């Protein structure tokens, strides 16, 4: 990122931070979409249907894999999606420690971002 606009006007530090935050949010959303599609594909390869629902704090999604024929839940886990090289927050670490079915997925958004 350059410190200058196209015509030489300087951006303030606040503007650069705002732009970086918007870029991080955009990459995060792309990464979440990739991870949700991946979870669905993994479930389909096992002959199951994946129900993915957004959760509140502590994780991004709850994934339930249901049997296609019976409709019973075969596997349920919490999914946390990370893009780049971030660390888990305190709440995420706490949730991971309490729950054995907590899965952290690191996604590279390079080709899409």
Tell me what you see in this structure.
This protein is elongated. A four-stranded mixed beta sheet has the order 1-2-3-4, with helices on both faces. By secondary structure, the protein is an alpha+beta fold. The chain has one domain (13-107). A hairpin with a 6-residue loop joins β1 (48-54) and β2. The mean pLDDT is 89. The protein has helices at 13-45, 90-98; strands at residues 48-54, 61-67, 73-83, 102-107.
Quick recap of the structure?
By secondary structure, the chain is an alpha+beta fold.
Q: Structural class per helix/strand content?
A: alpha+beta
Number of helices: 2
Strand line-up across the major sheet: 1-2-3-4
Q: What count of structural domains?
A: 1
Main sheet: strands, sense, barrel: 4 strands, mixed
Proportion in helices: 25-40%
Average pLDDT, rounded to a whole number, is 89
- Anisotropy-based shape: elongated
Oligomer: single chain
Element string (H = helix, E = strand): HEEEHE
Tell me the Rg in angstroms: 18 Å
Distance between the termini: 15 Å
User: Per DSSP, what share of the residues sits in E-state strands of 2 or more residues?
Assistant: 25-35%
Number of strands: 4
Unreliable stretches: none
Set down the secondary structure blueprint.
Elements: H1 13-45, E1 48-54, E2 61-67, E3 73-83, H2 90-98, E4 102-107
Parallel strand pairs: 3-4
Antiparallel strand pairs: 1-2, 2-3
Pick out its properties:
single chain; 113 residues; alpha+beta; four-stranded mixed beta sheet
């Amino acid at each position: 990122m350059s410190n200058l606009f196209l015509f030489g006007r300087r951006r303030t530090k606040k503007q650069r931070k705002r732009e970086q935050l918007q870029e991080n949010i955009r990459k995060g959303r792309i990464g979440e979409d990739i991870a949700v599609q991946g979870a669905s594909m993994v479930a389909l390869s096992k002959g199951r249907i994946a129900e993915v629902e957004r959760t509140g704090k502590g994780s991004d999604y709850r994934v339930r894999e249901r049997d296609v024929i019976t409709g019973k839940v075969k596997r349920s886990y919490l999914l946390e999606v990370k893009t780049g090289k971030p660390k888990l927050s305190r709440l995420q670490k706490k949730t991971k420690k309490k729950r054995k079915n907590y899965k952290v997925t690191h996604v590279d958004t390079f080709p899409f971002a």
